[in-house]
Design a protein that fits this description.
It is built from 8 helices and 10 strands. With about 250 residues, the protein is of the alpha/beta class. Helix 7 (about 200) links the parallel strand 8 and strand 9. The longest helix has 10 residues, at about 220-230.
């Protein structure tokens, strides 16, 4: 007598599928899984994976997170994304997906988390995702960001986590971001963040964690920052090294 096999995990468990390197040769493997088996698929360092491979994901209607790191996926990705109604968390790094392709994705307005690294401008990326009013987390790497871009970022009022690189960032530039009412985590790279930034950092209303190449700070500077932030959440500072734009790796994404 045939016995039907039941899944050994609860339906609401958050399972991530990380396919093996030969998935591009056997893309039908995706079809072996039910539409709600996974909430996330991560494909990393697999240049044999292209947009055709990803088209076999379209039956996974509960998929919320998709990671594409160092693949051969290109601008026709939006055709697959359009068929993933629950997707709101996307990572694109080392793939040939331009911002304009993201702009064609009908579900871009539902995006809550985006990590993006490619040969493009920050302005084109922000324009592509301008309808994502619920965006909570944004990491952009390998793209320089200017004063106009920072001002555009302030339109994402629900942004809680932000990471970017800018070699010429000034205290006045950073001050623009204090207009983000929900920002809690800020990671800045490519520049030196000296004590001159202290008055600006003190103004962030909900900031709890800041990671940056802090330099030339003294005990007095840190004590002043703590005092100036009275009445605001405690702030955890982490010093990092300055990483050049050309030295960027997908591992920079967290």
């Amino acid at each position: 007598m045939a016995v039907e096999c039941q899944p050994i995990y609860a339906a609401d468990e958050e399972l991530t599928f990380v396919p093996f390197t030969s998935i591009s040769r056997y893309p039908n493997l995706f079809r072996r899984f039910r539409s709600d088996d996974f909430v996330a698929v991560e494909i990393r360092r697999n240049l044999s994976v292209n947009s055709e491979t990803l088209s076999h994901l379209t039956h996974m209607k509960k998929l919320r997170r998709l990671v594409l790191e160092s693949t051969d996926v290109r601008n026709d990705l939006s055709e697959t994304l359009d068929q993933l109604p629950a997707l709101d968390d996307l990572t694109i790094s080392g793939s040939r997906v331009e911002p304009e392709a993201l702009g064609k994705w009908r579900g871009v307005s539902k995006l809550k988390q985006l990590r993006y690294s490619a040969s493009a401008t920050t302005a084109s990326l922000l324009n592509a995702i301008k309808s994502a009013s619920d965006l909570e987390s944004l990491s952009i790497y390998g793209l320089e960001i200017n004063a106009a871009d920072l001002k555009t970022l302030t339109k994402f009022k629900k942004l809680q986590r932000l990471k970017f690189t800018e070699p010429d960032l000034t205290a006045a530039d950073l001050a623009v971001l204090t207009a983000l009412p929900e920002l809690q985590t800020l990671r800045v790279n490519g520049c030196v963040v000296g004590p001159i930034f202290e008055p600006v950092i003190a103004k962030f209303k909900k900031l709890r964690y800041m990671e940056a190449p802090f330099a030339y700070w003294t005990y007095v500077d840190f004590a002043k920052l703590k005092n100036d932030r009275k009445g605001k959440p405690a702030l955890n500072l982490r010093e990092t090294r300055v990483v050049d734009l050309e030295d960027g790796l997908a591992a920079e994404f967290e």
